[in-house]
C-alpha cells in the first residue's frame, strides 16, 4: 500500500481546523441570544451561545470522525492488501478533500449567519447537511471496488472479493438509511437529543460493517 502523502494530510487537517479557528476568533463577538426561526407551533425561539457551541462540537466531531474513518479505521495489513495503482490513491485524496471542504464551508457559513444575527433553525440546517453527506457516502460505498484506501478495509474484506461486495452493500444500505433518518430527524428533534443520538449512530456506522465482515468470513469458513 502506498504511504500517505504528508502534505495532503496536513491540508486535510487544516480543513478540520479552519472552522474551529474561525469560531474562536469571533466567539466574543457573537450575540448572547441567537434568534431562531419560529417553531412548528408558531412561537419564536431563542438559542443561547451554549446551544450554539454544542452544535459546533457536533459538526467538529462529525468532521473528525470522517477523518479517522478514512485515514485510520481499520489499519491495513500489508500481507492482506489489495494491489491498486496511482489512480485509486488520487481518488482517495480527492474524495477526502471534497468531504472535508464541504463540511468546513458548511460549518463556516453557519458560524457567519449566527454572527450576523440572522434568524434560522441552526440545528435543522446542521442535521440536514450532515444527513446529505452521510447519504452520499452510503450511495458511493455501493459501487466501491476492493482497494486499500477507501471503504470497509478489514482483514476479511481484503481477503475475499465476495465478502467485500456483501459488506459494502450492507454498509451502503446502513449509511444511506442513517443519512435519510438524520435529515428527517433534523426537522423534529431538539438540538441536544439530536446530538446524542448522532454520537450513538456514529459508533453504529463504524462498528456494524466491521462486525458484519467478520461474521461473513466465519460463515464462509463453516
TrEMBL record:
It comes from Chitinophaga polysaccharea. The keyword Electron transport does not apply. Coiled coil: none annotated. Pfam families: SdpI. InterPro entries: SdpI, SdpI/YhfL. Keywords: Membrane, Transmembrane, Transmembrane helix. The keyword Membrane applies. This is SdpI/YhfL family protein. PANTHER family: IMMUNITY PROTEIN SDPI. GO terms for biological process: response to toxic substance. The chain crosses the membrane at residues 52-73, 93-113, 125-141, 169-189, 195-212.
Amino acid at each position: 500500500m502506498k504511504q500517505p502523502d504528508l502534505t495532503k494530510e496536513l491540508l486535510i487537517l487544516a480543513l478540520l481546523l479552519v472552522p474551529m479557528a474561525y469560531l474562536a476568533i469571533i466567539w466574543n463577538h457573537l450575540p448572547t441570544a441567537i434568534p431562531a426561526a419560529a417553531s412548528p407551533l408558531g412561537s419564536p425561539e431563542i438559542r443561547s451561545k451554549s446551544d450554539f457551541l454544542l452544535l459546533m462540537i457536533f459538526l467538529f466531531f462529525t468532521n473528525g470522525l470522517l477523518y479517522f474513518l478514512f485515514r485510520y479505521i481499520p489499519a491495513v495489513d500489508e500481507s492482506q492488501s489489495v494491489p491498486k495503482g496511482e489512480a485509486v490513491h488520487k481518488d482517495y485524496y480527492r474524495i477526502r478533500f471534497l468531504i472535508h471542504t464541504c463540511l468546513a464551508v458548511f460549518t463556516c457559513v453557519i458560524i457567519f449567519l449566527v454572527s450576523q444575527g440572522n434568524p434560522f433553525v441552526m440545528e435543522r440546517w446542521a442535521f440536514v447537511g450532515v444527513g446529505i453527506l452521510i447519504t452520499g457516502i452510503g450511495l458511493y460505498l455501493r459501487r466501491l471496488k476492493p482497494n486499500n484506501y477507501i471503504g470497509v478495509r478489514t482483514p476479511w474484506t481484503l481477503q475475499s472479493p465476495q465478502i467485500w461486495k456483501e459488506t459494502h452493500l450492507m454498509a451502503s444500505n446502513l449509511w444511506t438509511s442513517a443519512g435519510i433518518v438524520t435529515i428527517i430527524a433534523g426537522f423534529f428533534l431538539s438540538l441536544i437529543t439530536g446530538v446524542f443520538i448522532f454520537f450513538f449512530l456514529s459508533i453504529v456506522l463504524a462498528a456494524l460493517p466491521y462486525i458484519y465482515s467478520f461474521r461473513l468470513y466465519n460463515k464462509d469458513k463453516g
